[in-house]
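Cross-check.
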Amino acid sequence: MIANPSALAPVIREMRQADLPRVAAIEREAYEFPWSPGIFRDCLLAGYTSLVIEHRGEIRAYAIMSVAAGEAHLLNLCVAVASRREGHGRRLLEAVLERATRAGADRMHLEVRPSNDAAIALYIQNGFERIGVRRRYYRASSGSEDAVLLERRLERRPRRQ
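Predicted model, tokenized:
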């Protein structure tokens, strides 16, 4: 019998400075041209919404979002390779959408590589629509890769005081 079954459930929490080595390791594992640890640190210092999913004592995924002028921008959402297809990406996406709505955003934007079929499917399944392309947005081994620009309108709620 498990003494505390909820201790085994994944937990979404705010990212901390101490999480940055693991977050950067997940990023390096997932991408050919990863964000540097300094970029993650700067996002924390800027006060961006920065979340992680922790499961069984290990960070499995993270998301970073900025909100300004009524718009949210999902800057990064990544799941550790060994933890994919476990619902972590969907849970994090739902969490940032909720926080964006609470912050008064009426839409969320994001860019994704057209070669990232799993991410595009996740976003489309969660109400995002293709609204454009950013040419040569991402670094790639061939030089550059376009980005698909996606948007989702959010139900606007009054900001909490």
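The chain is about 30% helix and 35% strand. The first helix runs from residue 20 to 30. Passed to J.P. for a second look.
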